[in-house]
Amino acid sequence: MINRTIYAQIELSIKTKPVTLITGARQVGKSTIALLFKEKGFNYVSLDSSRERELAKKDPEMFLSLHPWPLIIDEVQRAPELFSAIEEIVNNEKINKVDNYGMYILTGSQIYKLMNGVTESLAGRVSIIHMMPLSRNEIISRKEPIFNFDIIEIQKRANENPLKPIDLYDNIVKGFYPELYNNKLLQVQKFYSDYVETYIERDVSELINVKDKLQFKRFMELIASLTGEELIYDNIAKIIGVDKKTIMSWLSVLISGDIVYLLQPYSEISITKRIIKRPKLYFSDTGLACYLARLTSGEILGASNFSGRFVETYIINEIKKSYVNNGIEPNFYYYRDSNMNEIDLIILQDGKLNRVECKSGFNFNNSAVKSFKQLDKTQYALGAKVIISNTDTVYPLDDGVYVLPLSGI
């Protein structure tokens, strides 16, 4: 089994909060990592069991008395009635003794359902841990610090674990769900076929009434091809043949299931009149996006017009994982204005504004970063200016811009 960086954050949460909630998309490893705590004395129950789920919904107090804490409850979103009962037990334990930490570990997808129960019943009592798919660092058993633009360290990491372009494209197509790495016999396309069918039949059907599931799958396939692009609801609605409200509803389901996320545009007072205000859409896992976009091999991806946006998705996801896995909320944005100036990724870190371009090539000149100057008068201190790309060696451009190898993330 692959060691997960985020394990340390879960361990810390158990020591400092009564309830730890582990969220994330299906198959990212929530149950697997939670089960590790059985060795530390936790009991375990899954609400995938219809019998357990029925009891939890109809008589949550009885359910919790039959399954005493410390307790792991898997797929807790399937019985939101449990939250109030857990709150009462946690409060009573707090009255009886000072230390009521580490009582419950909850896992679940469908973040909207979970958050409703948490904010109503467990506010202040719960630590929320967001799990993403595997990072490359986890796969190759490399330490995973927060990405921090340390040029010397990035070059060292790239030298120790280089990544050829064809290997990069193969990794992007395979994706980063743990089961694909733990079970070498799994066929990638079959895994994703089953994943999509299960997701639509179960998670989507629980949240909204999708009359035409084939149409919803077509919607997923379309937006997979748009990963890394601006989100324009009207265009998607026109192609799929439904109204804008339906597209917004369907997209909210994908966000809820952590299938996709939105990168918001960056704004400051001095530039608000000219910026594009639409978010960009990214798939949380490139393998799922490739499957839906019918990109079945690294060779096909590398030769396609999709390669740039999928490499961009990969880079941003890997940087995001380094933050999330270390318990830090990433402050990520992008920039685009009415004059078509664009910056792929803006990272606000330690009071500094860092500008990042994500590229699939090797050699660049200053024209690749001409948009960086649009934020020279930011209210924040100026940080790094970099292109992250397929290069294997760090090299400088003019004006303090460096080209960095993506293998060093």
* Helix content estimate: 40-55%
Strand content bin = 15-25%
Q: Which sequence of strands runs across the widest sheet?
A: 9-10-11-12-14-13
Mean pLDDT: 93
Quickly list its features.
alpha/beta; six-stranded mixed β-sheet; single chain; 409 residues; five-stranded parallel β-sheet
Care to describe what's here?
This protein has 409 residues and is an alpha/beta fold. Helices cover 42% and strands 17% of the residues. The chain contains 17 helices and 14 strands. The protein is globular. The mean pLDDT is 93.
List the helices and strands and how they pair.
Elements: H1 7-16, E1 19-23, H2 30-35, E2 43-46, H3 50-58, H4 60-66, E3 71-74, H5 82-96, E4 104-108, H6 111-121, E5 126-130, H7 136-139, H8 151-160, H9 165-174, H10 179-182, H11 188-207, H12 213-224, E6 229-230, H13 233-240, H14 244-256, E7 260-263, E8 280-283, H15 286-292, H16 298-303, H17 307-324, E9 332-336, E10 342-349, E11 352-358, E12 381-389, E13 395-396, E14 401-405
Helix pairs in contact: 3-4, 5-6, 9-15, 12-15, 13-14
Short synopsis of the structure:
The chain has helices at residues 7-16, 30-35, 50-58, 60-66, 82-96, 111-121, 136-139, 151-160, 165-174, 179-182, 188-207, 213-224, 233-240, 244-256, 286-292, 298-303, 307-324, and strands spanning 19-23, 43-46, 71-74, 104-108, 126-130, 229-230, 260-263, 280-283, 332-336, 342-349, 352-358, 381-389, 395-396, 401-405. 42% of the residues lie in helices and 17% in strands.
